[in-house]
Design brief:
The longest helix has 16 residues, at about 205-220. It contains 17 helices and 24 strands. By secondary structure, it is an alpha+beta fold. It is about 30% helix and about 25% strand. Strand 23 and strand 24 form a beta hairpin. The strands form seven sheets. Strands 13-12-9-10-11-14-21-19 form an eight-stranded antiparallel beta sheet, sandwiched between helices. The chain folds into five domains: about 5-125, Rossmann fold; about 155-230, 2-Layer Sandwich (Dna Ligase, domain 1); about 230-360, D-amino Acid Aminotransferase, Chain A, domain 1 (2-Layer Sandwich), CATH 3.30.470; about 360-475, D-amino Acid Aminotransferase, Chain A, domain 1 (2-Layer Sandwich), CATH 3.30.470; about 490-520, no CATH class. Helix 4 packs antiparallel against helix 5 (about 130-140) and helix 16 packs across helix 17 (about 515-525). The chain is globular, with a radius of gyration of 23 Å.
Length: about 525
């Protein structure tokens, strides 16, 4: 049975002061998400004078977002399929709570046309584009066809599904001139799921089988298509914000090329690879893509940029991006607040339409995962938790100290963002902020970020989507001194898990390359002779 806030004790929230922006666009809004993005939306609601309603699974009954909201509604057990992906449970929670609107955040149901339709049929407002737009752009192949017709460059490849011949074979299927290596992609989704690199045609059958299964499990649709592999390439995206009255703001680009498994680890704006001329081309292409659908709300148009400066459309995400804060820092705009205002029918202000990015912003994602084991996700309980502070630093987090990490969800713990007058200053600020960051109890990717900000290619802005694969691999090799330190850590820490040690005056997580060696040393010392 669903429970509300009153069933579980008091909220962390204090009495809210009246909004300075006049009458809020909604009285009460339900957040159909969890973690740091739910916290981000709840905070925007507080500033706008809107009551927030959190949704929570059994695994999140005491989560930060659940405690920060004005009210909270249980939507099911821990598995996402029975809670955060349950349209029926979320709609029922919204109606019980008296919410007038639903914000889906990112991931989960944020780009699900059936969910947006159900929200509208329940007499509620969906904070996002119309269901028809979600449906049109949810089919990546259909989107490729419409964007190509609008005169926007697309990655060379198939415009129809990759389907075996009548004998169940792909050996004789026409690939439309696609050369290898190539990329298999899921027509119904993104985020790297259902994606496979195929080196030559002999690997295609096996790759299709594996990618199809993964796409079916992730999106309920195993349809695949094939694209030419563009390499080397940079992943650059353009932030859009549109209203219901035809106005569209182009809010600059973000560089997203630091990736593992086709998923982002660091984003920055502006891109160090984008010239003024290319910036104008990307903005124009993004406008053309938006014009192919009935668009309002926040959206991002993603492109690949090749070594010659040519750009190719990848996809349009009609939701808030994980990295939206990078654009907020360089523009001074609150994209979440404007999403909510647009959903209520407000027009974009002249300040939004004329917004020009200023300075440089960088975001790193702090994940509970092991960068020395191919960034494999880890579980456990957060121990020590100290985030940096000071001028130009922002942290969006969804966890607190001593919080258990549910294994059912994405391992993103927090986003660390910095803003400064130029890129060198932003990198220096990020290096300082990372040195102050402490996460204990679980392995994180902080050691990777410490390594990255000292790499010559990154410092020069001369990197592409293969950076992690080519330069990091399983992590840097250990020096003799680090191996000796690892052995000492193992000797002192046998039977316990230390939270941090001093190296060069900075407190760092022990789960770095040398602490991984320490674990191996400890295991070796426990073996019988």
């Amino acid at each position: 049975m669903a429970t509300s806030r009153s069933d579980r004790g008091p909220s962390l929230r204090k009495d809210r002061a009246p909004s300075d922006a006049g009458t809020p666009p909604f009285r009460r809004l339900l957040v159909a998400n969890r973690g740091e993005i739910a916290v981000r939306i709840i905070r925007a609601c507080r500033e706008m004078g809107i009551e927030s309603v959190a949704t929570y699974s059994d695994a999140d009954a005491d989560a930060l977002h659940t405690r920060l909201a004005d009210a909270a509604e249980r939507i099911g057990p821990a598995p996402a399929s029975e809670s955060y992906l349950s349209i029926e449970a979320i709609i029922a929670a919204a109606l019980r709570s008296g919410a007038q609107a639903i914000h889906p955040g990112y991931g989960f149901l944020s780009e699900n046309a059936a969910f947006a339709t159900a929200v509208e049929e329940a007499g509620l407002v969906f904070v996002g584009p119309p269901p028809a737009t979600l449906e049109a752009l949810g089919d990546k192949l259909a989107a490729r066809r419409s964007v190509a017709a609008a005169g926007v460059p697309i990655v060379p490849g198939l415009l129809v599904p990759l389907v075996a011949d009548g004998q169940g074979s792909l050996a004789s299927v026409d690939l439309g001139g696609v050369r290898f290596p190539a990329l298999l992609k899921a027509a119904a989704g993104g985020g790297g799921r259902g994606m496979r690199r195929v080196e030559d045609r002999s690997e295609l059958e096996a790759a299709v089988a594996g990618a199809g299964r993964e796409a079916l499990a992730a999106f309920g649709d195993g349809t695949l298509y094939l694209e030419q592999l563009v390499a080397p390439a940079r992943h650059v995206e353009v932030q859009l914000l549109g209203d219901r009255h035809g106005s569209l703001a182009v809010l600059g680009e973000r560089e997203c090329s630091v990736q593992r498994r086709h998923q982002k680890l660091l984003e920055e704006s502006p891109s160090p690879a984008v010239s003024p001329g290319l910036r104008a081309q990307l903005a124009e292409s993004a406008r053309r893509v938006a014009a192919t659908v009935a668009f309002h709300s926040a959206a991002t148009v993603e492109f690949l940029v090749d070594a010659e400066g040519g750009h190719y459309f990848l996809e349009m995400n009609t939701r808030l991006q994980v990295e939206h804060g990078v654009t907020e820092l360089v523009t001074g705009l609150d994209l979440v607040a404007w999403q909510i205002r647009v959903a209520a029918g407000e027009r974009l202000s002249q300040a939004v339409l004329a917004a020009a990015p200023s300075g440089h912003a960088i975001e790193v994602r702090i994940y509970a995962e092991d960068p020395h084991a191919n960034f494999a996700p880890v579980s456990g309980r957060v121990g020590a938790w100290h985030m940096p502070d000071g001028p130009g630093i922002r942290v969006d987090a969804g966890v607190t100290a001593q919080m258990p990490l549910p294994v059912e969800y994405d391992p993103l713990l927090a986003k660390l963002l910095v803003h400064a007058e130029d890129r060198p200053s932003a990198v220096a600020r990020l290096r300082r902020a990372l040195a102050e960051t402490v996460v204990g109890g679980v392995q994180t990717d902080l050691s990777f970020h410490h390594w990255l900000v000292d790499q010559p290619g990154f410092l020069a802005g001369a990197y592409d989507t293969d950076l992690v694969h080519d330069l990091w691999g399983d992590g840097p090799r250990l020096s003799d001194g680090e191996r000796a330190l690892a052995a000492e850590v193992a000797r002192q820490a046998r039977g316990r898990s230390p939270m941090g040690l001093r190296r060069g005056g900075a407190l760092v997580a022990t789960e770095s390359a040398w602490s991984a060696q320490a674990r191996r040393e400890a295991v070796g010392r426990r073996r019988p002779a």
